[in-house]
Design brief:
Blueprint: E1 4-6, E2 12-14, H1 17-21, H2 49-54, H3 68-82, E3 87-90, H4 101-114, H5 119-126, H6 129-132, E4 134-144, E5 147-155, E6 161-163, E7 169-171, E8 183-184, E9 190-194, H7 212-232, E10 236-240, H8 247-263, E11 273-277, H9 281-303, H10 317-353, E12 362-365, H11 371-383, H12 390-397, E13 411-412, E14 415-416, H13 427-442, H14 445-448, H15 451-463, H16 467-478, H17 484-513
Antiparallel strand pairs: 1-2, 3-12, 4-5, 4-9, 6-7, 7-8, 10-11, 13-14
Length: 514
Amino acid sequence: MADGLFLPDGTFHPFSAAELSTELATRSNAGVLFGELEGWLSTLPDPDPVLRKRGDDAAILRELSADEQVTTAMLSRKNRVLNCPHFAFRAGSPEGETPTPQAEDLHRRFMTDLERTNLRAIISGMLDAPYYGFTPLELVWRFSGDWWHLVDIVPKPFHWFRFGSRNNPVFVGEYGLFCADPRPLPPGKFVFVTHHASYDNPYGLRLLSRCLWPVSFKRGGLTFYARFVERHGLPWVVGEAPARAERLEKQAMARDLSRMVQDAVAVIPHGASVKLESAGQTQGALHEDFLARQDKAISKVLMGQTLTVETDGKNSLAATKAHKDVADDLADADKFMVTDAWNEIAWLYAQVNAGPGVLAPLAAYDEPEDLNTRADLDKKLTEIGVRFTAEHFTTNYGLKESEFAVEAPPTRGGIADFAAPSGRMSPAEKAQSRLDAAIVKMLPRALRASTDFVTKLENEIRAAKSYEDLEEALVALLSPSLSPDALESFLARAMTAAAGLGAAAVQAEGEEDG
């Protein structure tokens, strides 16, 4: 083991145990002073740029779920994971090895404890982390006999917790910043599900904070739009008074027209006229576009795209598929987040009850194989000459051997015929058939018995574009299997047969054309 490191200039720098084992880039070394203070100042300020710009606390994010677009997008994203039925636990073991009896017993006890919990509600709480940055999960234990049982896992409000100078979570309660004595969390009591948390921002990336402005614009726009509709949605009653009408007559006519809006009855002076005018549609369309723009912004933030939440009738199939792929990627990321949280819970369960020598249970989403994709691949392989056995279909498709039969390909002269269908053949096809039969006769008995080798040989013959290509391919293919003398003799006879049969085929085609 080296005791130092050679620097680029060639000098040798010895290792220092103190330097290597001590964290250098800390907040205190960087000049951040609040980490040394007492009380609520000892917690890190929330670095969320939107919240800091508005001067709001993260607790305001809970109110955004009152917006219908926010709720729709949140539920749509969460349900893609909640409705996935392929989530399961297995006993912990190294890759490719069988779990030990201790790991099997730990897994059994863990699953027995989880039967008393609402897994769907717990996973739903975990899936709140992308919207609020993180989700605290409190583990409720009960000791019975010689075992710590996991009674419940409860998602708690995120705004009750903050982070200390070492990114350690602390409990501050409902009043957050005004808590005079943040309480450290005991080990094994909480698990935090985080969304893109970092050293600089342990609070995680809060997607809902990016929806604050669109929701605010929507609320202000809806208020204005409601007033606009109330004021301009009804038709305007326009009266034209006679040219010589006095002021009092015009006022009386206006009062009659005002009452007409309520009861549709009015008495107007002789010579006056009344017509109904409606507001133009341009103003209303502008407000509709404005509100739709905010909804799309919300969908993009929470879902990464818009077409799985809303459609406008102008979307192509390619665009819809691209947006679905984005939604699938986010669902996969959320699944990884859920499995990481469950694996941490299982690890704590193992540490509390079994110690470090027993591997903890593992959680995973085991997605089934897409059989359509496999069937397409098998079809392509069959088209190039691959033949599958019954075991292939029973293993990969779950079929019973009594449900199907594997048909052997039609053969001619001992070699599978992959070219022309049965029936009348052209002269070229007849010549190819005779060439195949000649090659079979020339091959040694051991090679003729190998179906795989014959298939390779056929493929090389058909792939050759010239006499020289065929000769080189046959040499490369046959040289490991034949002695030099036998190989030379075989190639001579094969080339002679190929040349003769080729000439016969050309002559036959000429006679047929003539």
